[in-house]
């Protein structure tokens, strides 16, 4: 399987086929990259490097109804119609429990493969979806920054375009650097205008002798687009894909993100298993903006999330490559403690971040925010999200956290990946 | 000679039509520079796209809006913003005085302010008009320092004697007037104090000075100590040698090369015409280094789109609502939605526009634009003529030869590396 897959990559990028790419400094073909890895530089195997999967929940997930402070009377008083009874939650300890929809995550908790970081947020919370999501993705609460933290890591490590891949419809700011960006791979296949084939676009991506460096770089982008798409297709073909079902739309308003999380995650699993050299994957689930009639919609989404994450985690635990993967789940903010008049909740602040995988030391991290000592009706964050980001940078990507978190912030390392 | 003229027209405006290029070739380089930078005839094209009347901010008059009122008003603001953006794209396309329109686009990127934070399209339009009414940089700097959108964007409103906020002061020094590293942190703090006291009247879409919020004490900035306030600070910065040099460097970066530094002789020639920005631009266009800068810039997405509209004989103002929305989304995906720069640093440049994600977006965007052109017979040579490309590389020519479908030919032409780089 191993050798077959590699050979596919060589063929796909034209290295074996004889039409060797004109590789300038800026352009290293993927086939070449794999060859470099497998033959020249000490047999590095991409199945052995640690990888990060970032799951973004768009719309503001209700943290209090995800990791439920079931024992708190303030919780029940603030949202009588929305609160979960203690006997329904899936207990984590004598104060907190998972939403009853999160059965799969509850078993991961039992296997100590789920870490829950509590009360994660940032100073001076912004309640705009777009601004707050921007803050999380750029790791810059102080002001707008044009690069995401993964993007800065791409810049800083001079990473190849396939180092970070998004299976979302649009490249998230997270993966945008100043000089490099991750690749956006369409889950439904590469979308091209009518009549334009991948071969034609690939041909447009050939460098020409004597053209300016910028013009050559413009060509490279087309070649990379086709190469990366091919790489992913080959990874899919090489692995036995479980049938993916497209989930129906959820009832909440769209604020970005995709509703086919399980399909996205199964692409990730295929790539990981096939040894694709991607280190960071970005996937998402949208619809968490539950301003009204929250119970039904939120449970629907959490069930989807639970199923997608659980089958992903189960599949990954079966291979060595899969066991190198750490998955993190976050949303731009939690929701208000008190329910609104429409049995929903408005935009809030801090929320839990979930981290799962074979490398994870399961358990609770940080402190659950107080439900009585509120900041104008909202939870006070107890953990800065940049500590989570910094820990992932250091432990999964082996990168200097302060350098890529940016803004002079010195992240505190959280021990959720300290598993031996 | 011909190549130099094509380069000049591409850089000075949003993409010359074949007819404009032919006329310029007849007139010669010097005469074309003069005509571009000092047009004499009235701008008939621009009169087709008059400044839109947006109407009042839908939030004004709502003192305690309900969630439903809020949602309706936000939606209305977004509609107004779309109308404003669509108008500007139309104006950039139809204006005859391309060099002036391009220069205003440059200044938008220089004083980069985003509607995403400002939220009120009325304030963005006001800033736009402030820029339009001041081609002289000193007039512009004075207008900008109290411009409501800029003040709001950089938290000038919360900059008070009691609680100074240095955001606006810092960017004034770093990004607008001197350039990074030409001042100390103490200068930043003092500049911030000089700018205290400016407030915004949202309903009136204007700023006003409240002396009670102003720090009236002495401030030391770049070695000079006095009771600086907003306008005396701007006057003082305008007199710094660095200021003129910095503006020359920024123009070079957007008009000549985003990678090579400006040669000293070019900068000196431009500085001599400071603060009149069109004259600085003229000096740049006449400079040998500019004339030798082919291949050093990547078209910004707005330049690419507006150029395509001009070349294909289309108008953004005449697109269907569906297509208009596609265009705004497309520009956003490419990373350049006018009135919404990603940060106060303005737009990216060079290879930053050439990402894999942008490549995918651009191909489909080009495909959609090509669909708007009625089908006819086209050859690769015709496509070069329409898009004013001098010659195709063998690579692109081979790809073009693989099809005879006119829409496909145009799509490939619009997406080609040759069309993306000037």
Walkthrough of the structure:
The complex is a heterodimer of chains A (420) and B (422). Chain A is of the alpha/beta class. Chain A has helices spanning 2-13, 30-40, 73-78, 103-110, 129-138, 149-156, 198-204, 213-238, 261-274, 294-316, 385-395, 401-405, and strands spanning 51-57, 67-68, 90-91, 97-98, 114-121, 164-166, 183-184, 280-285, 325-331, 351-357, 363-365, 383-384. Chain A contains 12 helices and 12 strands. Mean pLDDT of chain A is 82; it is low at 1-43 and 241-251. Chain B is mainly alpha-helical. Helix content of chain B is 58%, strand content 3%. Chain B has 24 helices and 4 strands. In chain B, helix 5 crosses helix 18 and helix 9 packs antiparallel against helix 13. Chain B is globular, with a radius of gyration of 23 Å. The model of chain B has no long low-confidence stretch (mean pLDDT 94). At the A-B interface, strand 7, helix 7 and helix 8 of A face helix 20, helix 22, helix 23 and helix 24 of B.
The portion of residues forming beta strands of chain B comes to under 5%
The total of beta strands of chain B comes to: 4
Summarize model confidence as the mean pLDDT of chain A. Answer: 82
- Secondary-structure-based class of chain B equals mainly alpha
Percent of residues in helices of chain B: 55-70%
Assembly state here? heterodimer
Q: What distance separates the N and C termini of chain B?
A: 16 Å
List low-pLDDT spans of chain B: none
Largest sheet of chain B: 2 strands, antiparallel
The helix/strand series of chain A, from N terminus to C terminus, equals HHEEHEEHEHHEEHHHEHEEEEHH
What is the SS-derived class of chain A?
A: alpha/beta
Report the sheet with the most strands of chain A, covering strand number, pairing sense and barrel closure.
9 strands, mixed
Strand order of the largest sheet of chain B: 1-2
What is the radius of gyration of chain B?
Answer: 23 Å
